[in-house]
Every structure is written in structure tokens, then in C-alpha cells.
Amino acid sequence: MKVIIRKNSAEGSLWAAHYIADRIKEKAARSADPFVLGLCTGSTPIETYAELIRMVKAGEISFKNVVSFNMDEYVGLPKTHPESYWSFMHKYLFDHIDEPAENIHILNGNAPDLNAECEAYEKAIAAAGGFDLFLGGIGEDGHIAFNEPFSSLNSHTRVVTLTEDTRIVNSRFFNNDMNQVPAQALSVGVATVTGAREVVILAFGPKKAKAVHDAVEGPVSHMCTVSALQLHEFGTIVCDDAAASGLQESSRAYFAAVEAAEKR
Ligand code: GLP
Questions:
Q1: Ligand 1 centre from 29 Cα, in Å?
Q2: Domains held by the chain: number
Q3: What's the domain range around 42?
Q4: Most ligand 1 atoms within 8 A of CB, residue of 73, 85, 92, 143 to mutate
């Protein structure tokens, strides 16, 4: 696992956006196949998306041959509700880039048969060729997508029940009333994420410090589902100083040394 530490979220987001853009360009140079990208919601990726939008508008990158799949969606929230992940993604990314609408995949939390929706999602990911890169955030308890503690590290896309903690944290988007936060969601599984050829996780701010510590220095555990990244060959966590503050000084120094060595 690599850990990239930057002073603040702005610098971390620039790193992530340019990294993703480079990966898209690198694949386009060697293959006509689409770049298959996993995407996340939350406050954390907004600055990364803003930089990707700037690059698209400046003609530095194109999403015309990108196929994306989002991680998760609330169950029962109307698609056009301002807090649906469908609305979020269109507001912060899709409305501003050149990704064709038919390449955008977001789980339908209002599907008549939710299990069939999840099965079809996994099949569509496989049919697209599997993920080249999965961009994720993390919850304060170390959850990835909506894989709450006790989710199987071998899980795939399915219906999940949110923890009370997650509903309380997310109630900031629902008039601070956790009862307005849907109790269930559809979520890709931990294994759906770690099945990607590469995983990049963003974590910014002091509230993510414990999750980053657990993910990087703790054991692989279903108590912190992002810790499954320890079993991935190409996993990177991008943090700001605040989110990295729970790491040992020696770990931080080692990750900085790895980065410096790779630049040479
Ligand atoms: C939700 C989402 C996760 C996201 C997390 C953190 O739980 N399902 O995908 O990583 O929130 O959100 P934020 O970036 O706002 O801290």
C-alpha cells in the first residue's frame, strides 16, 4: 500500500485528479478499450472532481471513452432528491464533463427488485472489462462505499443496512435528522472494490485520522472494511496532514521516502 500525504485537501485532491487523468491518458495511448472508473460520493471527492472538470474544460483530458460505475445509492430516495447520489454525481461531475450519458452507471435504489439490480450491476462491471481504477472515500469508521463494519471482505454488490453512526454522520445532509436518512442502501461490496486493478482512496480532515490509522497500521479486519486494501497490490490512500495524524512518525517518513524514490 502507498500513502500519499499532502498539507491539505486541496493539494491531495490535485494529486488524485492528476493521477486519475494520467491513468486515463495512459490507457488511451495503448488501447481503444474504455477506461473503467469506479466513483464515490461524499464531501471528500468534490475538489478532485472540480480539478477533473477544469481539465476537461481546458481540453487536457476527455471522458468520452470512460465508463463509470458509482459505489452506492440510498434505497428508496427518489433519484431527483437533492441528496441522492445520482443528483450528487450530476451536480459535482457528470453535468460538467464529456462522459456520454450511456457510460454512466449508478445503482437504482428504487428498482422493483433490488437483488436483481445488484446482480445486474456486477454483471455490467464484468462486461465492461472490470475496473481499471476505483476512486473511493472512507467513512469515519473506515467503511468503504457503504460496507459498514462486519461486512464481509469478500462481499459484492448488495442491499446493506446502514449503521446508526453512519446515519447520524450523514444526517448533516438531511436537516440534521437521522430519521430522514434512508436506513438501507445498495452498495458495491468490498471485493467489488478490491477487484479493481487499482484502488485510490481519499481521506481528508481530522475525523478520518482513526480510520486511516486502522486501515494502514491496524489488522485486516471487517471492523474497518477499507483495511482490505492491505491485500491489494496497487492500493493508494491519499491523505492530508490531518487525516494522516494518527499514523506513526516512522510510517509517515517511510511513505515520504517511497514517494521521493519513485520521483527520481
Ligand atoms: C458515505 C458514502 C461513502 C463516503 C463516506 C464519507 O458513507 N457512502 O462512499 O466515503 O460517506 O463521506 P465524506 O467524504 O462526506 O466524509
A1: 33
A2: 1
A3: 2-263
A4: 143
